[in-house]
Amino acid sequence: MKLFLLLLYSIVSLMSYSATNLRQPTSDSPVGRALGSSAELELALQDSAAAKPSLFIAIFSLGPNWKTDKPAHEQTYFKEHSANLKKWRAEKKIVLGARYSGKGMIIISAADEKEARALVEHDPMVMNKVFNLELYPFSPFYIGCIQ
What we know:
Radius of gyration: 25 Å
Order of helices and strands: HHHEHEEHHE
Oligomer: single chain
Number of helices: 6
CATH class of the largest domain: Alpha Beta
Largest sheet: 4 strands, antiparallel
Strand content: 15-25%
Shape: globular
Helix content: 40-55%
Mean pLDDT: 77
Low-confidence stretches: 1-25, 29-35
Distance between the termini: 37 Å
CATH superfamily of the largest domain: Dimeric alpha+beta barrel
Number of domains: 2
């Protein structure tokens, strides 16, 4: 118990010290000079947010040209589709991929919906109607951990 109280006292003391000794950087301080004016900083933050890619979810379901008598790896254009997925992973376009309820889905990182759509609509399995495609903006409200 004494150890716990000592640890708690140390944490509170450190927090109090930090809170009283921290202050906004001034324009004549090294940090202030590095940051520039608040208007410049605000503009930099807006540019950074604008450059941040958006996320989209692409859902693949079986299309009219899916051969029900063949497994996935024997479907027409399967090798080309797999090559696309490999390429998109290497380019860091795919954030996450999964299968569920007979469907496949990938979370795509792209500048905008036009870029995301161009990426997946040109997949041979989509173009040749082996897969149907649905594409939606994806806005996670909770970022967790998948391993």
